[in-house]
Amino acid sequence: MSSAARAPRSLVWAGAVVFVVAVGLVLLMVVRPSAASSSGSGTPGAVPAESSADVGFARDMSVHHQQAVEMAFIVRDRTDDEDVRRLAYDIINTQANQRGMMLGWLESWDRPKSSDRPPMEWMGHPVTPSDGSLMPGMATDTELDRLRAADGRDAEVLFLRLMTVHHRAGADMAQAAADAAGTDEIRSLAAGMARAQESEISLMADMLKARGAQP
Asked: Model confidence over 134-163: pLDDT tens digits?
């Protein structure tokens, strides 16, 4: 693939700009509540508890989204296919924005953005990372290396398969948060994520079929 066909380098910075702006907007809109009101009960103005679904989801989905954005950047530079590149741009912009919102909420709640507790513990089934895959659906380091080495149709098919698995697990996590979260922010965002990722799973199934591949 010729370098002329690649997206302008400025697009690499676009995702970072979206992330920074999203964090700033969240911090401007949310007034930091008193830590003494921490309960996770959904009471207006209360800070979600450290063990709450709200905090656990915001942390874990931020990591999950980060890898989705990474994979989208990789495939963007490995194919000239406009449909795949369009999907990659959408994932980069949407998930970087959502990640910024979640990190901003953690900041406003005075909760650390990372934890030494196992991922997914808030869902009741903590997981042990393997080969760089920190949570269900996340690609392994080996799979990411394969994606970086692929080109053209091979890169498209591998990306669509990996992202389908990624989205399925992400949709499950989002639905769990929509059902269990105590804050309106997380419930609303998670429910929207679940719907959007299910829709993109259907889209990617059609894209794989058009390339003579199975999910």
From this structure: 999 999 999 999 999 999 999 999 999 999
